[in-house]
Design brief:
The chain has about 230 residues and is an alpha/beta fold. It has one domain: Alpha-Beta Complex (Spore Coat Polysaccharide Biosynthesis Protein SpsA, Chain A), CATH 3.90.550. The chain is built from 6 helices and 11 strands.
């Protein structure tokens, strides 16, 4: 299964890309491909930074850094990336975050062992203590039927937009980073990111859940949210 990390990046976060890729290179399993879209690139020094990053990391995996001079909203940047992703398994990643060394390894293993098209995982936040080695067999898994039952019994009665709750673990007390979801490439042919409150990523995850019913949540902090150390 070919893996791709997809990274939409506003130019203000360009300096973080080197740190992010340093974490990726230090992983227990490397992705086959990393594709980054940077918006908007309007200065020579910004382009030069991109070239330096390309040269530094291109020998570790297939690296494709796309540039645009246009200022676009987040959902456009994510959709812009899709035609350039060649992996079977896509791991979305925000440019101002980093990942746990086992992220690619653990996500790939779940897709190989479960009949799923979509996975969301928990994350480490802020000054929270760094996470050491994670035992795959110790990870709590919320199965598709459990998620759907939760929505049917509890969340549909809430007076709020339903997909908002998905970003917080769908009622299972597992904080989920919807923007760092992992999906099979095939579903991106029909489901795209759209502008919706509270976020295009939460709505995207909800659409996949309801259309395919093959989503799992895992309580594994394999992503560092707003941490670029």
């Amino acid at each position: 299964m070919k893996t791709t990390i997809a990274i939409p990046c506003v130019v203000e976060h360009l300096d973080n890309i080197d740190i992010l890729l340093h974490h990726v290179v230090g992983g227990t399993v490397l992705p086959d491909e990393v594709v980054i879209a940077v918006f908007p690139v309007t200065k020579k020094e910004q382009h030069e930074k991109i070239v330096n990053i390309q040269n530094k990391y291109q020998n570790y995996f297939q690296l494709n850094i796309l540039e645009s001079t246009d200022q676009k909203p987040r959902e456009y940047a994510r959709n812009f990336l899709i035609p350039f992703l060649s992996g079977d398994l896509i791991l979305w990643h925000d440019a101002d975050d980093t990942q746990h060394p086992q992220r690619v390894e653990i996500v790939t293993r779940f897709f190989e062992n479960y009949d799923i098209v979509h996975l969301c995982h928990s994350y480490r936040f802020g000054k929270e203590k760094a996470i050491g080695n994670i035992n795959f067999d110790d990870i709590e898994v919320i199965l598709p039927e459990q998620i759907l039952q939760c929505y049917n019994e509890k969340l549909l009665s809430y007076n709020k937009i339903i997909w908002e709750t998905f970003a917080f673990g769908g009622g299972f007390n597992i904080p989920i980073h919807a923007g760092a979801c992992c999906v099979k490439k095939e579903i991106l042919e029909k489901i795209k990111f759209t502008r919706n409150y509270p976020g295009e990523d939460s709505k995207f995850c909800f659409d996949i859940l309801m259309q395919h019913k093959k989503t799992i949540l895992i309580d594994a902090k394999i992503y560092n949210y707003n941490i670029v150390e």
